[in-house]
Structures are given as C-alpha cells and as structure tokens.
Amino acid sequence: MNPRSIKIRAARPDDANFIGWAMFAAARGHLPRGWFDIVLRRDESFCREFCARLAAANARSWWHWSLFSVAEVDGQPTSALCGFGDESVYRASSEAMHEACMATGIGAAEEAQLWPRGAFILSATTSEPGAWTIENVGTRPEYRGTGVTEALLRHELSRARGAGFARAQISFLIGNEAAERAYRKVGFIFAQEKRAPDFELACGSPGLLRFTRDLSRAQR
To answer: Domains in the chain and their CATH numbers?
Structure first.
C-alpha cells in the first residue's frame, strides 16, 4: 500500500466504537478468547460495546479515546493504538470499568466479580519505569500486512520521541507471531518474557512478551 494513502490522526470521541473494536481485537491477539471475553462472559457484540464504553468513559484510563491514534485508508478507520508516558492511567481503570458496567446494564454483584476474573493478567505483566507504553494495537484483518500497522507504529514512536521519551515498550501474548513480526519491523527488540500457570489456564497463552525500542536511534 502506498504510504501516502494512509492518514494518521489523533482519535476523536466519535471513534469510540472503532477503538472499542481495536481494544477487543488486541486483547484476543491470536487467540479465540481474550481478556474481555473471559472477564465479561458475554458474546462478542456485548464485549465490543463494553469496550466502546470504556473508550468513551469520563474516567481517563488507558482505554480512553484521547490516548489513541487512528490510521485511515480512504477515509475509513483501519487501525488504532494508544500510547502514554504516565502510568497513572492504569489506576483509572476501575472507574472506567464502573462507568461501562453502568452503561451496559451490569449490576453491582456481577461488577464485583470482573476484576477477580481478570486478575490473571497481572501474573504475567512486566514494565520498564519511565518508558513510553504502547497498548491496544488493533488492525482490521483485511489491512494486516499492508503497511498500515507499521505506519501507525512509526507515527507513535515519533510522538513518543517528540514528548521527550528515550525508550518505548510494548507487550503482547506469547505465540502472537504476527504481532512480533510487526514490532520487530519498526525496531523493537526482546526485553522480557513472563509466564504464569494461572495466565495460561485462563486464556491459553503461557504469558506475555515485552519488547522495547531505543528512541535515540533513527527509525529504520
């Protein structure tokens, strides 16, 4: 695909539905079920609506639309990701989840079960303090391998560099070879792997890989 046909822009509030799809797809990765399937125990349509509500919530969590960039082809959103340097956005997750539960009709009793169902994710999570974090990378299937994801990632790395960050990091499911190829293509290298039995029991992947990128080097 001609890179000039790809337009990358900051997300808007009206992107919430597409961002919700991207979040849901990113959580699944290469697996048939992801974090939202496991936590919500609903069908895909409900899970995607829930994710859209997270993106549109008043709470500015790491799911919030304002942290996302969107790649368009012919005026249609095809890929999205979020990036941030302030890990406090993770702490807003519970508030955003509460808003999404209220909006989708999940009652208090069930809401109280959501975080315990999803706690397995913490067993395999690692992080580098002070690095720019990229999350929720989702690309429409028909645009994977066309250069759209690469263009969006390169844009995000430039944004991180412009914000004064020297390092970037990204995590993904062990076994997601397509994601690994995409991240290596823009200069990410292996940093850490963490496996956990409860993680594998819950979702089918042994754990998470974390790759990092030195932003002081020019992009390839």
So the answer is: 3-214 (3.40.630.30)
